[in-house]
Structures are given as structure tokens and as C-alpha cells.
Amino acid sequence: MQANYDAATIMGGLYGDGLIGLKGAFHPEWADQLGQDVEALLEEALQRPGGAVGRGPKRYYVETHPEHIRGFVGMVTHPWVVAVCETVLGPDYKIVEIGFDVPQPGAVNQPWHRDFPSPEETLIGRRLNSLAFNLTTVDVEEDMGPFEIAPGTQWDTPEGFEHEMFPPKSLYNRYESRAQRKLPKRGDISARSALTIHRGTANGSNKSRPALVFGVDAPGGINAERHDLQFSQTCYDALPTELKKHLTCRVVEALQPIQQGHTIEGLIMGEA
């Protein structure tokens, strides 16, 4: 683990609340460049059948190719990212996904949910074997549909959950009483368990709120099965050797369009 970051603090945050963050990890100008890349990629994806999936009205998710994100290498090799991954997932962690979520003006509250069913390692073994990292491309304000999370709920058993992901409305008071809205700034980064119950809130502004996400698994994690991380041979050859050890990916002569495989049907309509 990177010596600059305390293992107990990292473990305490992710095993406790289920989310930690580092403010000012990157320069705001770096985040602006990320925003330019995301905007162009979203426009392209919306023109291509299957290029973007709905995560509710006026809300899209796009899985993309790492080499289309100019800051990819610096992002996933940031010392804090490495420290968090090594501390929680072990030294043989694997990056399995990169994409972005864009709640546009008019996006509505999502139902409370987790991103996939809780695995046996967490339900029985009480171990986190995956993490999701998020980076905003804008300074988030209250009316822009902030991300909302219910701390500590990564350990909730999915009794009565639809698809083992969507809790019944009888539990909403529990989540709303715990809810924390996150208002990150450009350059901030966070890490969370995608099992912690969360939702995107209604975007009542006239601005989009794009956020990049990349997913990381411990050995034995199966989230790579839901995704299709690809590198062209030329790009892969240029990657740092140490980074290559942490990728579950295909190396191809020419990049192929990604047909998003991680559709979350329960998010299509938003909160009823």
C-alpha cells in the first residue's frame, strides 16, 4: 500500500459509511478536460444504437474505451486510488470498467438501489470485493441532482429487494433518515461500495451533471462479466507495465463498439 495514506482510515470509511473521498486530487483544469471528453463521447453514443443506456428519464450511462479518456492513466495510477484498491481489494486488484453517468436537466429521483446483487462474499463473508470510483466533471450544486447515499447500508440483507437490488418502499424512511447528499468539486475523487444503497436525485437546474466512474474488483470478483474493457494494441503496448497487471481487458487490433451489458431495468422509469 502507498505509505502516504492510512489503511485504517480507508478501511474504516469503506467498511463503515461505504464511501470515502479525496478533495483536490486533480487540478480543476484536468477535470475540465475530462468533461470535454465525456461530452463528446456522450454525443457520439447517443447517435449509435445501444451506445447509451437509460438510467431513468433524462439520465444516461455510457461505457467507454479507456483510451478515449485522455487522463486515464494518471487517474487510475493516482497514489490515493492505488492505496484504496490495495487496502480494500488486495495487491492483485483488477480494473474492469470505465464509463460515465449523465443526469441531464429534467432527470428525476431514482429509486433507492444498489448497482448489483450483493455477493456471498459480502452477505456471508462480510468482505467487500469491489469498489466504484467517481469523478465529477462539474462543480455540483444542490439543484443539479446530487448523488445521495445512505451510509452503512452496504451490509443490508436484500430481504424483499426486487432483483436483490431495489429495496421495498417500506424501507425508504430508513434510507432518507441516513441520506447524505454529495456536492463534489472539479478535481475531487471518491470511492464507494456500489452495494451501499444510493440514488441520483432530481436535476432541477439547466445544467447536466456528468460523472465518470471506473470499477475495480478483488481477485474472484465477477463484475468484469458485465463489461467489455478494451484497448487497441498500440495503446496497450504504451501502458505502464505495473498498470497492465491491474487490467481485465481485451486487446484488439481495432476498438469495437461497446454494447452496454449492465442494464439496470429498475432505473428506467425513475422513482414511482
> Could you list the spans in which at least 5 consecutive residues all have pLDDT below 50?
none
Counting H and I runs of at least 4 residues, what is the number of helices? 8
Rg to the nearest angstrom? 18 Å
Which fold does the CATH topology refer to?
Answer: Jelly Rolls
Measure the end-to-end span.
44 Å
The residue fraction in helices comes out at: 10-25%
Which structural class do the helices and strands define? alpha+beta
CATH architecture: Sandwich
Overall number of structural domains: 1
Order of helices and strands: HEHEEHHEHEEHEEEEEHHE
Round the mean pLDDT to the nearest integer and report it.
Answer: 93
Global morphology: globular
Brief descriptors of the model:
alpha+beta, 24% helix, seven-stranded antiparallel beta sheet, 12 strands, Jelly Rolls, three-stranded antiparallel beta sheet
Describe the structure.
By secondary structure, the protein is an alpha+beta fold. It has one domain: q2cbj1_9rhob like domain (Jelly Rolls, Sandwich). Helix content is 24%, strand content 20%. The protein contains eight helices and twelve strands. Strands 1-8-5-10-4-3-2 form a seven-stranded antiparallel β-sheet, covered by helices on one side. Strands 7-6-9 form a three-stranded antiparallel β-sheet, with no helix packed on it. The chain has a two-stranded parallel sheet with strand order 11-12. Strand 2 and strand 3 form a beta hairpin. Helix 1 packs across helix 4. The chain starts with 6 loop residues before the first helix and ends in a 20-residue tail after the last strand.
